[in-house]
């Protein structure tokens, strides 16, 4: 066997390992009833609750439910990427799962590839569920052109990538697995409140808008609103437009920044392990 053939075989084997790791991660997620309910069902429940309470319009013929749904789709992506990993990884670190992984001959990137595949599967499932609930029960209009579907795709991909990398980076903040939910959940909730998920973004105090603009969720929400809301509603956004180039720029910068933080701060073992 030539050197090229050997390298090709090795790469193929590594890809198979990554896919197998991703399959295992998905199965473990589905076996955890609490995770499935919180990650997949909670956003849909929130849409049902808020959609049943708030029935008015917020301008340009846009119902509050339409506005809220776009924020919940963004929240679902953040939950699947940031919140799930920032809680799950410290728990695995605490149980020694990461330390045992280091003792295997598998490349380190396989572990992260498995997490990425799991997040991707969860994100797709969650988005489908939210779109189905919103369109069937609250009349959400799905994108009516290839251009809007393309925007939905690239905004979602950039957003979930940024959230996933942020989740891996933030997983080093919690000292123990037990404290991870208490550390991560308030951060996720605060970001939702200031990023235009539960309230019209421009109705929030200016200082709150400025803080939210530093983080990915605000831009993810704004990008998704350009897909599901009329183009005329862009006048209600900060700056008077949906500003998709800025959405792409900020989310892209967060991908780079979060990746740098992952590479410099990620810990495989707890402090007591040395």
TrEMBL record:
Q: Where the protein is mainly located, per its record?
A: membrane
Instruction: Describe its membrane topology.
Output: Multi-pass membrane protein
Annotated PROSITE patterns: ABC_TM2
Q: Does the keyword Transmembrane helix apply?
A: yes
- Describe the location of the ABC transmembrane type-2 domain by residue ranges: 34-269
Q: Transmembrane ranges? A: 36-54, 66-89, 109-137, 149-170, 182-208, 246-266
Span of the signal peptide? none
Answer yes or no on keyword Transferase.
no
Task: Kindly list the places in or outside the cell where this protein is found, as annotated in its UniProt entry.
Answer: Cell membrane; Membrane
Q: Which UniProt keywords apply?
A: Antibiotic resistance, Cell membrane, Membrane, Transmembrane, Transmembrane helix, Transport
Q: Which family does it belong to?
A: Belongs to the ABC-2 integral membrane protein family.
> What is the name of the protein in this document?
Transport permease protein
């Amino acid at each position: 066997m030539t050197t090229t053939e050997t390298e090709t075989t090795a790469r193929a084997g590594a890809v198979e390992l990554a896919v197998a790791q991703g399959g295992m991660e998905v199965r473990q997620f589905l076996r955890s009833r609490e995770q499935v309910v919180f990650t997949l069902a909670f956003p849909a429940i929130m849409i049902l609750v808020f959609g049943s309470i708030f029935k008015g319009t917020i301008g340009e013929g846009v119902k509050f439910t339409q506005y809220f749904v776009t924020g919940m789709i963004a929240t679902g992506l953040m939950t699947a990427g940031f919140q799930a990993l920032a809680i799950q990884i410290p728990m695995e670190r605490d149980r020694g799962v990461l330390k045992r992984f280091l003792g295997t001959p598998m490349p380190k990137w396989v572990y992260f590839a498995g997490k990425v595949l799991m997040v991707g599967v969860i994100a797709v499932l969650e988005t489908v569920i939210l779109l189905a609930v919103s369109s069937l029960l609250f009349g959400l209009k799905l994108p009516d052109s290839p251009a809007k579907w393309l925007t939905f795709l690239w905004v979602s991909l950039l957003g979930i990538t940024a959230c996933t990398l942020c989740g891996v980076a933030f997983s080093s903040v919690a000292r123990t697995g037990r404290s991870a939910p208490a550390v991560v959940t308030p951060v996720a909730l605060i970001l939702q409140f200031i990023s235009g998920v539960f309230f019209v973004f421009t109705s929030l105090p200016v200082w709150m808008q400025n803080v939210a603009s530093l983080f990915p969720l605000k831009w993810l929400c704004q990008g998704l609103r350009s897909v599901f809301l009329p183009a005329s509603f862009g006048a209600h956004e900060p700056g008077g437009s949906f500003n998709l180039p800025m959405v792409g720029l900020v989310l892209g910068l967060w991908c780079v920044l979060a990746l740098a933080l992952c590479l410099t701060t990620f810990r495989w073992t707890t402090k007591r392990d040395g």
